[in-house]
Amino acid sequence: xxxxxxxxxxxxxxxxxxxxxxxSDAFGWAITCCxxxxxxxxxxxxxxxxxxxxxxxxxxGRSSFKTWxxxxxxRIAAGERRRAWLSTSRLARFxxxxxxxxxxxxxxxxxxxxxxxxxLLRAFARLSAxxxxxxxxxFYQEMTIEEAAAVLRMRLGTARVHYERGKRRLKALLSxxxxx
Amino acid sequence: MNRDPxxxxxxxxxxxxALRREDASxxxxxxxxxxxTPRHGSRPHGLKSIxxxxxxxxxxxxxxxxxxxxxxxxxTQRSVEKAIAQARELQAWSAPTDFxxxxxxxxxxxxxxxxxxxxxxxEPSTTQPYNxxx
Lengths: 180, 134
Description:
- The complex is a heterodimer.
- Chain A has helices at about 1-35, 40-55, 65-85, 90-100, 110-115, 115-125, 130-140, 145-150, 155-180.
- By secondary structure, chain A is mostly helical.
- Chain A has two domains: about 1-105, Rna Polymerase Sigma Factor, Chain: A (Orthogonal Bundle), CATH 1.10.1740; about 110-180, Orthogonal Bundle (Arc Repressor Mutant, subunit A), CATH 1.10.10.10.
- The termini of chain A are far apart.
- Chain B is mostly helical.
- Chain B has helices at about 5-25, 30-35, 45-90, 100-120.
- The longest helix of chain B is centred in the middle third of the chain and has 46 residues, at about 45-90.
- The radius of gyration of chain B is 51 Å and the shape is rod-shaped.
- Chain B starts with a helix and ends in a 12-residue tail after the last helix.
- The interface between A and B is medium-sized, with 34 and 29 residues.
């Protein structure tokens, strides 16, 4: 009886440990899904953790924990972005947050100091959402294209096309920026 | 002039890893994120909300369907009633030239009778025996 009662708690603790282990990577992914909006990324991550720990999103072991976790983050981030666009008041807030992330109390001033990183971010922002996602997963999270395709729920062939086109465009944009 | 694409890939990877290191230095603590309440509260995602949406859609469809059925039924009933009323009207209706009909009929009857008697007087009777000419 006691063992049965303790099982959900043990599972919750195991889930919490797994989330803690992937927290840094998850934040990096959330911030990309939220177009480098740090405040929104934190909120998305909070909602993801709540959804997982309350059992509304369940890991069924069909993929790796990281792939599944990234899928949940992506879904919640997409929902939040959609909600922000649908709601007028939130739209205004979203616009404020997007236009002036520094003013939201979560500045990214350190990026300005790192010229290379900021030029990468500028070029990266000009890619399509799909290209951004796949390049982030491959180059930042060091996933294979197959794993990235699983996170993005797309066919491997489609993922490869987005990857190749995105990489080509990013290189072109970076070299354009370097020439200026 | 031609650059090795593998070198390009390596450069990209290095740039992304530099970005990753920068991000890692500013990641909020896991416990802090977990403990914080989402600004919009935890919304019931998943089956519950899908069930709710389905139920509302079903109610909407039911209302729409019953409105269409009622409207169709009423319009059918109305058309039957209209047809009956039209039939009654037609039954009661008489043409304005109906008064001509008896006189006309009488004249034609008279004409028919007189014409027949005249023909009878002119034509030989068919009942008479036929006289064969010699």
